[in-house]
Amino acid sequence: WLPFAVWSTERFLVSGAWKFLILLASILAMQLLAGHFVIAFLTILATLGYAFARTMICSDKQAITAQNSSSPRSVRPRFRMLAACGVALGCGFLLAGVQLVPSWELKQHSQRDEEFHDVGYGHLPPEYLAQVVAPWKWYSLGDARNEKLQKLDWLALDSATNTVEAHLYFGLLPFVLAIIGLFPIANSRPLDWRQRLVWWGLALLAVSYAMGWWLPLTRQLPGFSFFIGPGRYGLIATLGIALLSAEAAEAFFQRLKPTLKWLAWSVTIGITIWDLFLVSRLVSDATVQTQSAFDLREFSPVREYLSAHPEPVRLHAPGQNLPTLLGVSAVPQYLGLSPTEYFQEATRIPPAPQTRDENGFIDHDAQFSERLRQAGVTHLLTQQPVSSGWPCQLVLKQSDPFLNAAWGRSTGDPLYLYELNNPRGRVFWKPASESVAEAVEQETTIEWIEREPERHELKVDVPESGQLVVTELLFPGWRVNVDGEPATPVRVEAMFRGVELPPGEHTVVWEYQPDSFGRGIGLSLGMLCLLALIAHVRFWHPGCLNWLEDR
Question: Cα–Cα 20 to 30 A to 169, which of 47, 298, 348, 460?
Fold first, then answer.
């Protein structure tokens, strides 16, 4: 979407046609609706940066013009054109309101508002920039590359990084062509020196930010402080080098005969594709599978066992988010934009123990197993057996084609599924009087009627007053009804959903109905209708909006 957004901006600046503004808004909305906000943020920066530079450097001869239906080409005020691009991006935000408003609510309650994330993580160490001209120096290191990357400290940040976000490679031939383009290689060129200066400026600015050098200034600004991984700004530099190399090649090849010109282009593109193909195999962090792991989900013995369990289960397993594809609740939770409670010391699940006993079994960690019990975990899935000190029993030892493929393990490697002893489970009763807790627990009955991700219905019979607790996060938007009447949710143990109940039989219904989702839908539909109305008027009645034009 990034090249498409820049192209739309360029077409509007050259033609003044509003359809390109509507297209720009739609492009940004598509990126935002996908939920990868850091890439959308890069698109906004690149688009505004390009629009600003493009409008400010225009000479009179190159003046940005617009074609009106009732007047000849007329020079547009630069600031108005730049403001129009900003308005289009703002419309893109409103178009994506259905995604952004709930995401903003999550951000307000996430670790991004705490000191749980380092904005410098994932930067590009300056020494690692040598990969641009000497990829063999780094990419041949294999698994040792990431370890060596952490030791690069010359002008580098103290933050950690990784080979994925610190990766920046354009292909040797495109980079050489971009450098050649700095010299006068032809009298007539597709871009003039000012346009080349814009893209070199954006590329160098992006690389310097990828190194983290601007973080002391930008970490205080909205947007910049939301995201980690400054190395991702290399995407803007990659686009700049791609355009500069293509422009230089076109200028260099234009002196050739048509047949030789197409041959030169074919060789250039072929060499570049082969170059990038080889590099993609050397720097990949993924294990290539002959079959999609997801297609093997139906053959998962772990999934089959857990789905047959009479009570809702919660699984602790490696690989955040992956085990949820088994159709069960799983922890630890995904490490991206997550609620603060998943990171605070008092409520988070600590890292799984890694130490081994003399037999190679995983040592028992009392704090870890107690936290699993508190979080309602019922089953533990490991890639190695656990020692006898764990309060659990082995219920399944078997190779799993789905999980092994997704984790890049050998097909025959076994997994170990344990059931924890006396777990809290997904729901439990907490009596008001702790002195009678054991007796009350024996007389309490809890029956699941419905258990969907956004709706839970339970029928309970309790002998004493107390709290019915669901071991899931009390996040804004969760509402509870008791016997058909709205009740007040109670936060239990700093994170869980609870509701006060008197003695007797009750039907308790939890439903997730966030107001943010409704507001987001309203914004998206409202902006969609407005843009459709503008497009309709501009197409059928162009004169109606001439008062907005600067003749």
Answer: 47
- Percent of the chain past pLDDT 70, that is, above it, reads 91
What is d(CA 126, CA 107) in angstroms, rounded to the nearest whole number? 31
With contact defined as beta carbons under 8 Å apart, do 529 and 507 qualify? no
The pLDDT of residue 114: 54
DSSP assignment of 429-465 equals EEES-GGGHHHHHHH-EEEEEEEETTEEEEEEEESS-
* Sequence-ordered list of residues with C-beta below 8 angstroms from that of 149, at least 6 positions apart, any chain: 125, 128, 161, 162, 163, 166
- Express each pLDDT in 213-244 by its tens digit: 999 888 888 788 888 889 999 999 999 999 99
Phi, psi of 428 (to 5 degrees): -150, 165
pLDDT in tens, 482-536: 999 999 999 999 999 999 999 999 999 999 999 999 999 999 999 999 999 988 8
Is there a contact between 148 and 141 (Cβ–Cβ < 8 Å)? yes
Quote the longest CA-to-CA distance of the chain.
94
Peptide bond preceding 102: is omega within 30 degrees of 0, i.e. cis?
Answer: no
Residues 472, 498: Cα–Cα separation, whole Å: 9
CA distance 511 to 149: 47
Task: For residue 67, give the amino acid letter.
Answer: Q
**Quick one: which of 21, 91, 104, 101 has its CA closest to 529?**
91
The DSSP call for residue 387 is P
How far is residue 152's CA from residue 128's CA, in Å, rounded to a whole number?
A: 8
Distance (Å, whole) CA 124 – CA 126? 6
**Collapsed DSSP state (helix, strand, coil) of residue 200:** helix
Question: What end-to-end distance do the CA atoms of the chain give, in Å?
Answer: 32
pTM of the complete model: 0.79
Q: Which two tokens stand for residue 13?
A: 């600046």
- Our CA dihedral for 90, 96, 101, 104, rounded to 10 degrees, sits at -70
φ/ψ (deg, to 5) at 32? -65, -40
Count of other CB atoms within 10 angstroms of residue 87: 13
Determine the pLDDT at residue 90: 94
Residues 6+ apart with CB under 8 A from 50: 6, 9, 10, 198, 202
Please state, in angstroms and rounded to a whole number, the distance separating the CA atoms of residues 177 and 146: 30
Q: pLDDT per residue over 378-396, tens digit each?
A: 999 999 999 988 999 999 9
Which residues partner with 446 through β-bridges?
460
